[in-house]
Structures are given as C-alpha cells and as structure tokens.
Amino acid sequence: MSDPTSLAIADLQRALKARELSALEIADAYLAAGERSTLNAYLDVQPELTRLQAREADAALAVSPTSSTSSASSASPLLGIPVAHKDIFVTRGWRSTAGSQMLAHYRSPFDAAVVERIASAGAVCLGKLNCDEFAMGSANENPVYGPVLNPWDRQRIAGGSSGGSAAAVAAGLAPFATGTDTGGSVRQPAAMCGVTGIKPTYGRVSRYGMIAFASSLDQAGVIARSAEDCALLLQVMAGFDPRDSTSLQLPHEDFTVACGRPVTEGATESAPLAGLRIGLPKEFFGEGLAVDVRQAVEQGVAALCALGAVAVGVSLPRTELSIPAYYVIAPAEASSNLSRFDGVRYGHRAKDYANLREMYMRTRAEGFGAEVKRRIIVGAYVLSHGYYDAYYVKAQQLRRLIADDFTAVFSEVDVIAGPVAPTTAWRIGEQTDDPVRNYLADIFTLPASLAGLPAMSVPCGFGAGRLPVGLQLIAPYLQEARLLATASALQRATGWHLERPPAGRDRS
Ligand code: GLN
Question: What beta strand segments (E) does 149-229 contain?
C-alpha cells in the first residue's frame, strides 16, 4: 500500500472499506508527517486525541460491510478520514485561539457548526491550523505564533489568512482542511501553495462558532488537493443551521456527484466543457498583474478552452473600488465584532489595572496585535458620527454596484476566470510594514466576496522560481456545483494539481 498521506480521499475511503488501511494507520501517517514538519502550520496537535478518534472510527468501520468498490456509508461519509481545522473554528477539547494572544488560553465549551458536522460525518481531527490573527491578513505572518512557511519555498509566505490550512494540505500534513474566506483567505493561500480551494456562496455554510471577523463577508470553505476532495468536505459542511441567521435553507444538492457530471448540455467525453462560456474580465488582466502569473493563468484558460469552453471578454468596471469598499466594511464589522474581547467575557485579561476602564484598555492593548488594532481604529472611525455617511454608507453603495456588475456579466457568461492574486508568494517580511501593499494584493478576490458569490482557486501552473499560481473561477450565486464540475474537468485533463512541493523542502 502506498503512503496514505499521498492518497486522494476517495482512495483512502476505498482502502478503509477494503480493510487495506485502518483509520489509525492513516492518522499515524499524518501525525508522523506533522511531527517532522517545521512549516509551523499547526497551532495545536494532540496525537492521543487524534488516535482515540481514529480507533473509534476503526470500531465503526469494523461493523460496516466490507466492499472494495463502494465509498463510505452515507451516514458517516468521512468515517476514518483525517481533517484539520483553521484555528478560527471553536473546537471543544482543542485550542481555539483565532491566531491571537487574546485567546491564547481560551477553551471553547462547544464546537463550531462546521466542526460538529465534520465530526459527526466520522472524520478524525488532526489539529488546529495557524492563521492570521482573527483572519485579518494575506500573508499569515502571525506575530504571536510565527509565520507559516510556504512548502514550495520556505523563505516565502504561505498566503493568508488560511495559510496553515494551505501549507498543511500542500505539504501532506492533512488530506484536506477547513478555512475561512472573508476577502480571499481560502483562495489566496490555496493559490500560493498550489492546492485547490473553494469559498462557497455566502450563507451556504453555517458561521456558528466561526470566530467572527466581518460577519456579512465571512464564509467557511475548504482547502484540498483536488476539486473532488473539496466537494467531499463541502458536502458535509454545507447545510441550513438555525443558529446562524444568515444560513440559507436550500434543497439538497450533491456536490460530489456534480463533480463528475457534464457541465453543459453539449458536453462530450473529449469536450466536457463544450460551449461553457468563460468570462475574462479585462480588469483582472491589467497592469498590476505579474507577467509570470498572467502566463500561468492564460495557460489555465487555454486548458479550459481545449476542453470546449469559449473565452469571452467581459468587464467588471468596479474591480479597483472593491479595495476601498472592503477595507471600510470589513474593519467596520470587525470593530463591532471584536468589542466582545474586553477581558470580562473571553480570553486574556491584563494583570495590572487601577479601574475598570484601565482593565479594558490594557487588556485590549496587550491582547490584540498591530493589524487587528489598525482595523478596529479604522472601523470605529468609519462608523462614527459625521463619517458614517461619507465612508460606511458609500462603501455599502459600492458593494451593491459591484454585485450588480457580476449580475450583468453572468447574463453573458457561465463562469468568470482570472488570477487569484497579482503575484506569487512574496518573501516573509517583505511587506510586513506596508499594510496597504498587502491590501492591494486582495484586488482579485475581494469582488466575489463583496458580492457573496462562490469562487475557487485551482492550480494552473507555476511562475518564476517554480512558485505555484492559482486560476480563480467565480460562478453565479449557489452554482458551486458548476464551479466544482468545471474545476474537476480541468483536473481530469491536466496535472497541475498533482504537483507536490519537492521532498525535503519541508525539512530544516
Ligand atoms: N486579506 C483580506 C483581509 O486581510 C482577507 C482576509 C480573509 O479573507 N479572512 O481582510
């Protein structure tokens, strides 16, 4: 049997069913890889707890019927499959830090909906993954827990904010992982680490127990090695939850089946994307796009066209304005969400203070990092009397126009394609002192976030220095199935997603 850490989820499922591998053997292989790793992807591992869950899965598998063909049972579709969670999802029995000093010693009394759903599908938890503090960032240079290193080049960032998730999946430290995407945090690190990521439609996955950053944008997603593996985890995560007031009540849909289904009516075996109209927004291919990224993205688009898709030039005229709109709305919501961290109810409390006011001030001064403080200040400012109309209301108006631009484009095309990020992964430390440069790097992911649309990052080759590049695919509301089927057709025909970082790069 080959190394379990190199197998796709469907192969792991088959091997478990056929009793060729046990859940414990799979978990142990991943734990051993994690132990050897120096990427700083994990913030919490508890091998005994992982093994306990794996043994329980093995006990359940022992009483399930043996078969070498069928996949896992429908009641426990992920039985015995390991998974790791971004440390933004609260998890009982594990650390739940949100990458912050503020929650360094916080223990959640309950599981996030996503964690709960994945656990009841039978998955085995490998641990909690490093991320930018409160998911604010594009680099995962976490000031408290240290940067996540990119497995393709350890001098470089893994991307953010779900950098731990992307690095872990790319380096074979987890077969797939949860992430969250507020303005690009699933897609951007997936692109920079050469793995596949999906951010579903806003409301598709419950936000209950996801430590809040900007509630009108936050959405849980998946980082995996293929569109098919993404579909398997998304299938389990998605669903209505009355505990999240923005959760959508939708008819049942099977994303895993959708992956193999024809995307268009005219699809044939040799042209599975026949007639699929791919919109290429001219604003996504302008000056700011690095040449090597452009070449790889064009190569990805050409591969889609070789499968029968038709490229159509389109325009999303307010792409640039998504940056100021997002960087007003997200901090505004963050300033409100983060007011709960006051030293009374959650996490850290300052040791020395003379009165209540000083307790609040010192607690927040000590508990939050620089970027989080910056956002709280900006957020409080744009919401304050006299500035609310000038900034916050304007940003909301822009957000509506950006969503309208997508609606117009989707009357002409089925899927939008473009780059995920303007460059490949930059060097650790290179942009740390320049927050605005970091914000500008979000230009291609923010529009879909502001509009609440489903979007993916799919590996499409390499840029200079053999650094991975991601092709972004965006679909209309609730068309995750179309996205996954398109990405999976691309991955059946090409091998970019199968490329792994060179062995040894994950060793010191
Ligand atoms: N880079 C963006 C930010 O810093 C997006 C982060 C995210 O999606 N969580 O806000």
Answer: 149-150, 153-157, 176-181, 196-199, 219-224
Q: Domain limits at 141?
A: 21-318+407-498
Specify the 3-state DSSP secondary structure of 390.
helix
pLDDT value of position 1: 63
Domains in the chain: how many in total?
1
**For the whole model, what pTM was predicted?**
0.97
User: pLDDT at position 505, please?
Assistant: 47
Question: What pLDDT shows up at residue 504?
Answer: 54
Query: Is 162 an active-site residue?
Result: no
| CATH number, residue 416 | 3.90.1300.10
Q: Is residue 287 part of a domain?
A: yes
Domain membership flag for residue 332: no
| Identity of the residue numbered 211 | I
Angle among Cα 472, 448, 248 to the nearest 5 degrees reads 115
Task: Decide if 301 is inside a domain.
Answer: yes
Tell whether 208 is covered by a domain: yes
- Mutate which of 442, 445, 450 for ligand 1? The one with the most ligand atoms within 8 Å of its CB, which is 442
Backbone phi, then psi, for 213, in 5-degree steps?
-115, -75
Report pLDDT digits (tens) over 171-221.
999 999 999 999 999 999 999 999 999 999 999 999 999 999 999 999 999
Q: What number is the average pLDDT over the span 245-256?
A: 95
What pLDDT was estimated at residue 72? Answer: 52
Q: Which atom from ligand 1 is nearest to the alpha carbon of 217? A: 8
